[in-house]
Amino acid sequence: MPRGMFGVRGSGDTSGYGRFAPPIARSDTASRPYGEPFDTVMDALEDALGPTTTDAVERVVTHRGELTVHVARNHLPAVLSALRDTESLRFELCLGVSGVHVPADTGRELHAVYHLSSLTHGRRIRVEVSVPDSDPHVPSSCGIYPTNDWHERETYDFFGILFDGHPSLTRIEMPDDWEGHPQRKDYPLGGIPVQFHGATIPPPDQRRSYS
User: Fold this and answer.
1) Whole-angstrom Cα distance, residue 79 to residue 46?
2) Cα separation, 77 vs 99, whole angstroms
3) Do 96 and 151 meet the contact criterion of CB atoms below 8 Å apart?
4) For the chain, is the Cβ count within 10 Å smaller at the N or the C terminus?
5) What is the pLDDT of residues 126-138, one digit of tens each?
6) For residues 130 and 112, what is the distance between their CA atoms, to the nearest angstrom?
7) Which residues form the NADH:ubiquinone oxidoreductase 30kDa subunit domain (predicted)?
C-alpha cells in the first residue's frame, strides 16, 4: 500500500515530501507472457517486423499497467510505421516525444520516448530509444507522425538529441544563441537576478545556503 505524507495511504504523494514508498518494484526487462493486451500487441508487432524483430526490439518493460518497447535507433522508423499502419495495432496518434537524461546509464545517457495511442483499439504504448551522449543522433519521426515536428524540436532544445531528417531542427523554447541544453542533469543551475518592487533576488546558485 502506498504511504505518503502525514500517514496518507492509497494515493500518490504530491506533497514533495520525498519519502513516498512505491508499492511495486520495477523490472527492467519483462518476459512472456506479458498479460493482455500486451501479448496481442507484441504478437502483431513481431509479425509486422518479421525477421528484423530481434535486432529492432532490445527489450520490453511492463510496469503499472503500461507497456514500453525499447527499440534500436536505426530501426525506429520501421517500428513506428508498423505500429501506425498494421491493422491490428493502429497507433494513429503520437502524443509527444519526451527526453530523458540518465548520466549513470553509460553509453545510453540520452533517451527519446514516444507516447503512442490507438484510437481504433483504445490502447497505449510507449516506444523508447537510447543513445550515447557522444553520438546523440536519432532518426526523425516527422514523416510518420507530422506533429512530432514540434516535439522533436523541444526535445532537441532541452536535451540536445539530434533528430536526423527533421525539416528544421531549431530551438523552440530557448533563444537561438543559447548554450547548452537546460534539462540535462549536468546542466548548471544558473539563473539571472530578478527585481521585484525594489528588491533584488539573486540567481539560485548565488543565494544563501542553509545546509
Assistant:
1) 10
2) 18
3) yes
4) C
5) 999 999 999 999 9
6) 6
7) 69-191
- Among candidates 193, 146, 184, 181, which has minimal Cα distance to 166? 146
For 181, half-sphere exposure in the C-beta direction (CA atoms, 13 angstrom radius) is 22
As given in the structure block, the three cell numbers for residue 91 are 497507433
∠ CA 88-94-100, nearest 5°, is: 120
Name the residue with cell 530557448.
174
180-190 tens-digit pLDDT: 999 999 888 76
- Asked if 2 and 21 touch (Cβ cutoff 8 Å), the reply is yes
